[in-house]
């Protein structure tokens, strides 16, 4: 079997290849690319004779896979697979595995870094110190006692809810399928949006969740509420969110994900909106999470080679 790692995975090359050797032994010939490309012709050349492809969040579409006649399995070093043409994979019998769970801690911790940044005005505070100013106009808020809403009660959402409880928040949750989580009051989405001071999004990108938070939903939120999106960019209507912030209908927003992978266009509406903290899709990116992701990537490949596929999408 020829296994092609199409892009760097955030783990040092030597450590990554040693891990692959440990997990797979001599059952796979491994080719590693230490640069990222989104050029479809280049991707097709890299993966052209691969039996197994490993990628993170590179767009991997039908136009590329049609030129990969040997492809049997894709091990996606990511939780979501919306960047992979799953219809083509199902049609051709290409197995796709993901890395569910690798970044639960990383993402949920960043949520609170972002929430605290907005509530305690950390970025303006830093700027004030550097400009020789004092704390005038920089009095913040406490998380304790606030209503914290979690939209999507999967593994990351559930961990986020537990951290919110630890901060002393009252936690409300919404999930598309019925779930009961200890310490979380499960409600309908509209109720959560109306009641919560902080709303954190943790849903995958599907046709059902695309545009989940639009003008109507933002209009339901409290004027002093903040929205945090570490899920997927298209879950939120960015123009509507920017408009709500401009008009003071929301107090702030923290955004780690956009319609496209960063770098984003400098005229993106959220970059000029007030009270926005933006990060370049780093919620998953900790040293610990990236190494755990690599472990799962090669465990998925080993499972496939053993005839016991896991994390199948």
Give a structural overview.
There is one protein chain. This protein is of the alpha/beta class and about 325 residues long. Helix content is about 35%, strand content about 15%. The chain is built from 11 helices and 12 strands. α1 packs parallel to α11 (about 285-305) and α5 (about 105-120) crosses α7 (about 155-165). The radius of gyration is 21 Å and the shape is elongated. It starts with a strand and ends in an 8-residue tail after the last helix. The model has no long low-confidence stretch (mean pLDDT about 95). This is Hydroxyacid dehydrogenase.
The overall strand count is: 12
Proportion in β-strands: 15-25%
Which strands sit side by side, in order, in the main sheet? 8-7-6-9-10-11-12
Intertermini distance: 21 Å
* Biggest β-sheet description: 7 strands, parallel
Order of helices and strands: EHEHEHEHEHHEHEEHEHEHEEH
Please report the number of helical segments: 11
- Coarse shape: elongated
| Average predicted confidence as pLDDT | 96
Radius of gyration, taken over Cα atoms and rounded to an integer in Å? 21 Å
Approximate helicity band: 25-40%
Structural class: alpha/beta
The unreliable regions are none
Topology:
Blueprint: E1 2-5, H1 13-24, E2 29-32, H2 40-47, E3 52-55, H3 62-65, E4 73-76, H4 86-92, E5 95-97, H5 104-119, H6 122-130, E6 147-151, H7 155-166, E7 170-174, E8 184-186, H8 189-195, E9 198-201, H9 215-220, E10 226-229, H10 238-246, E11 252-255, E12 276-278, H11 287-305
Parallel strand pairs: 1-2, 1-3, 3-4, 4-5, 6-7, 6-9, 7-8, 9-10, 10-11, 11-12
Helix pairs in contact: 1-11, 5-7
